[in-house]
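User: Hi! I'm working on a homework problem where we have to compare a predicted structure to a textbook description. Could you give me the structure for the chain below?
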Amino acid sequence: MSQYAKDIDTAATLINSQGSPWDAISAESVARMRAQNKFKTGLDIARYTADIMRADMAAFDADKTKYTQSLGCWHGFIGQQKLISIKKHFGGKTDRRYLYLSGWMVAALRSDFGPLPDQSMHEKTAVASLVEELYTFLRQADARELGGLFRELDAAREAGDSAAEAAAQDKIDNHVTHVVPIIADIDAGFGNAEATYLMAKQMIEAGACCLQIENQVADEKQCGHQDGKVTVPHSDFHAKIRALRYAFLELGVDNGVIVARTDSEGAGLTKEIAVVKQPGDQGDVYNSYLDVEEVSPEDTAEGDVLISRNGKLVRPKRLASGLYEFRKGTGEERCVFDCVEAINAGADLLWIETATPNVADIAGMMNEVRKVHPDAKLVYNNSPSFNWTLNFRQQAYDSWVAEGKDVSAYDRANLMSAEYDDSELSAEADARIRTFQADSSREANIFHHLITLPTYHTAALSTDNLAKEYFGEQGMLGYVAGVQRKEIRQGIACVKHQNMSGSDMGDDHKEYYAGEAALKAGGAKNTSNQFS
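Assistant: Happy to help. Predicted structure tokens:
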């Protein structure tokens, strides 16, 4: 017996036990409402999606072609539309396709202060609120889709078509939810480890099964693709990783996933000199990367900070800001060390923020990590901060030079020029971009590929195109030809925006509550019927 049938029986038993006051309550309507609200709490969602991620991680370990993907979201509607599109284009399945919640987009688009840079200045509660909002919209997508299936079932019954009735019932019984894992950005924790724990609890309670935290100083945090990044000693970072784990365990999400991100590749500064308990420990290694000069006691000045290294007195180079510099060229080595130690501290997945999207560079670091942790897996930011076209044209150019191929027709410094768009080099670069995710998953053990800010850019691009046409010579045709007609031709559900907002579900409920007396919005005069 399907869950739908069980819910009908359970509701009928309860209704019958209550006698005549409940005579007007329909057992099947109750079952439908329960089916449309599969997840009762955010913790239900977090446990469900954590199991999905763990199963996907195991599948990837066995087959590197089974990497996962996500796109960043800054509004519940955006996340909902992505999953509706995924189900539409990929056979009704959501397998290995997630959502990403970007701290950058929360700062830029969701703060009461207005647009902010990615520096953890936005309200910390905005992140958990967005997690909850995303899942509210995904659950509404379930309810809307199931509502359509219930209408199919009713129409088949009314027509006496048993085959159509069975087909509709099968779709209901095997409905695939729009609810998928969200990888949620908790920045550098927005404070100390206790602040990290409290914020993590809010995010998990909202439904987050996976939290991504970075090793920057919370009050000096910078976007991963900007200058001025400052990292913390491993003991500080690992305390926050453990805070996340405690939050998951306290709330009963035992399978919760932690992504530890290192910004060391591009971070040349630290705010602290690490504590060293014994030679060769984490603190000692961290300090070994500091840029120092050997001094004697008589060479010191008032206020100098000195440390002992290999029996010698050295002075770390300190900026006017009070920050200490790392030695140039140590970024990749520090990334490897960070990753090894993060896994030792309980991280499930790693994230290395890189300067360019280069498979060989990423694989070089991950191969070193995997010498210590063979199953180490990476989450990789396929960032819009990279100029993908220029980077891959330059990579193709350099490969051709190494192969002895004639590149005299190309100016490496000017490869972004539109004059090369139809060239052989451009085709080679685009082919590499197309296979980048598959190649890097195979070569660098990247389990998850995400784009942090895709809809920030698509919203700007589509709005620019619409404004140019609508306020220009095309007038209303700019909207009709550029938007609505394309929605109709491509079967975009939002062309029926009343339905998407929940109007038909409201009609269903009115009928449950008031029967024939219900005043419904979906009658003959509803202009959405023009899109039927």
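For your comparison, note the following. The chain has a mean pLDDT of 91. DSSP finds 19 helices and 14 strands in the chain. Good luck with the assignment!
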